[in-house]
Amino acid sequence: MTLRVVIVDDEADARAKLRRLLAAHEDVEILSEARNGRDAIEQIRRHAPDLVVLDIKMPELDGFAMLRSIAADDSTPKIIFVTAFDEYAIDAFDVRALDYVLKPFDGERLGEALDRVRDQMSLEQRPTVESVASLLAHLGDRRDLAPAAEVEIAGRFVERLSVRSAGRIQFVRMADVEWIEACGNYARLHASGTRTLARATLQYLAAHLDPASFARIHRSAIVNINRIRELRPVHAGDGLVILESGMRLRVSRRYRANLDRQGIRLRPG
């Protein structure tokens, strides 16, 4: 799998650094560069890249305005924001960017961001549980399908997930998981500095995890409420969760009640 990339940054030095670090990855092909949002739209529509590595503050159109301009296009690339401004992280989460890299950064940090893109592209190329079910039904197979996730349940709730990785089966204790990220028909478990993909949807986990320990806070995220360090108001009823690791996640108004029921409420701004 080759990652076809467009670089977008208004600073020539920043583009040169990205070009150098990206070129170190054998599976990365740099298609073009853009100096502003309008130029980026033209380059993206011309080349249809897999990935855009994108600054936020640029002349003519900023990064978010550029993404709004291509939102209706048939094929929307994966996005990694690379910026010197940390205050836009929540907005980046809303437009489903796969990572948010703060300047200055090194090759290792950029490599982690590329790994997230590779994981997502790999998942999107796999057949979904729903498509397999449809195929079996079409073939007349009446057997019940196994659930999307292999789970160990004590009482009503999932306590462990078994995850296949590199030919091995690993067991992840849900109590060790800090937060869970939606990843198509999979879920990415963030635990003790590691990230593991489990074959379970976020909707499934939201329904089968102990609500005394886990709460869905966004359409794309579930958090371990025992790992919440702080909860802040942001705007328009939304909130910001800060976890023990320092990770910041958005709490949307739709899911605020999930935290309220556990007595976790926004402190005054």
Concise overview:
It contains eight helices and 16 strands.
What does this structure look like?
By secondary structure, this protein is α/β, with parallel strands linked by helices. It has two domains: 3-124, Response regulator (Rossmann fold); 151-260, Beta Barrel (OB fold (Dihydrolipoamide Acetyltransferase, E2P)). Helices cover 29% and strands 32% of the residues. The protein contains eight helices and 16 strands. The strands form four sheets. Strands 2-1-3-4-5 form a five-stranded parallel β-sheet, sandwiched between helices. The protein has a five-stranded antiparallel β-sheet with strand order 11-10-9-13-12. α1 (12-23) links the parallel β1 and β2 (28-34). The radius of gyration is 20 Å and the shape is globular. Residues 127-154 have low confidence and may be disordered.
- Structure annotation, total helices: 8
**Beta-sheet strand percentage?**
25-35%
- Total separate domains: 2
Identify the CATH homologous superfamily of the largest domain: Response regulator
What distance separates the N and C termini? 46 Å
Sequence of strands across the biggest β-sheet: 2-1-3-4-5
Q: What sequence of helices (H) and strands (E) makes up the elements? A: EHEHEHEHEHHEEEEEEHEEEEEH
Shape: globular
Helix content: 25-40%
Mean pLDDT: 80
The largest sheet, given as strand count, sense and whether it forms a barrel, is:
5 strands, parallel
Radius of gyration: 20 Å
CATH fold assignment of the largest domain = Rossmann fold
DSSP strand count: 16
Please give the CATH class of the largest domain: Alpha Beta
